[in-house]
Predict the structure.
Amino acid sequence: MQTDRRKEMETLEILHMNKGAGETSYAMNSSVQNKIISAAKPATKKAIVQILCSSLPEKMGIADLGCSSGPNALRVISEIVDDVYSTSRLLDRPMPELVVYLNDLYTNDFNNIFGSLPSFYRKQKQEKGSGFGSCFISAVPGTFYGRLFPSNSLHFVHSSSSLHWLSQVPGGLEDGCGRALNKGKIYISKSSPECVLDAYSEQFKSDFSVFLASRSQEMVSGGRMVLSLIGRESMDPTTGHSCYQWELLARSLMTMVSEGLVEEEKVDSFDAPYYAPCLEEVKSEIQKEGSFMVDGHEAYEIDWDGGMEMEGDASPLSRGERVARTIRAVVESMFEWHFGCHIMDELFRRYAEIVEEHLSKTRTRYINLVISLIKPS
């Protein structure tokens, strides 16, 4: 139990997207996440319309869980506000007062978001005029695997590209003598022992159940959630769509091990706090926890590089380089803490080359799951 608590605290304190607006920042390398937000947009609009058509809230609580920073953070809220505004006008009602909570872990770059708020408010007032009404935006740092908000305060919850991150590295990835069971790997792979696959699956189920129970207490009856996360279509957790980006990153590390640039024990002792579930796993936990009903679900394929077109620069980035930057912006905080900052440039240079070779031979994509939930009255 003590070890599990330490792992949880490490994840809370270490995991964050790359801050700022530099070359390797999340703000400059989040096209994949932007595509994922677009995929969930119809489900989000449908949920907002259903909430406003079934009730007359004078005040509407909205939470975006795992908001991160950069251009995507306020894009979600902007689209939700647009949906509330347009639906209120169709219903010939005043727009409800909006209380918006932006949530992410304590180490998130909230200052980046705060700096964007003045232009956000100006844009809303210019577009909507006096019909914009009141919108109060605040940040709520902390893990969504537990309570974050007052009881019965939320009408709509949105989460994108976040629930595939676990609260901690799963337990049970070492033998009785403390030796790594998933040697040479940093996540699930075809060569992982069955006990490693089970450990990851159980950690996801435990975390997701806590997430659902926590949101149930915070949401009003009839409230809705739209959850968008990286998953898989197959029941097999070792399918390439769900784990191969990690497999290639492990391969990059092992090339550095072979040259004495990284200690093999360092690779063996690193395990990603991540899990890409299949839809059946997600639905099973929803049914088991019992607080919500599934109102709809979809699965979408997303290119590893977000499907970006090559820019007309003198030296445009290759697909491998774009993928490497996207992954680096997300995982570098964890890798830097474990392996040291001195190997990051070389690691992701090698990763870009390996990814480029892989994508030249096969078409591997992310599978993004979008699940719509309702809390029954």
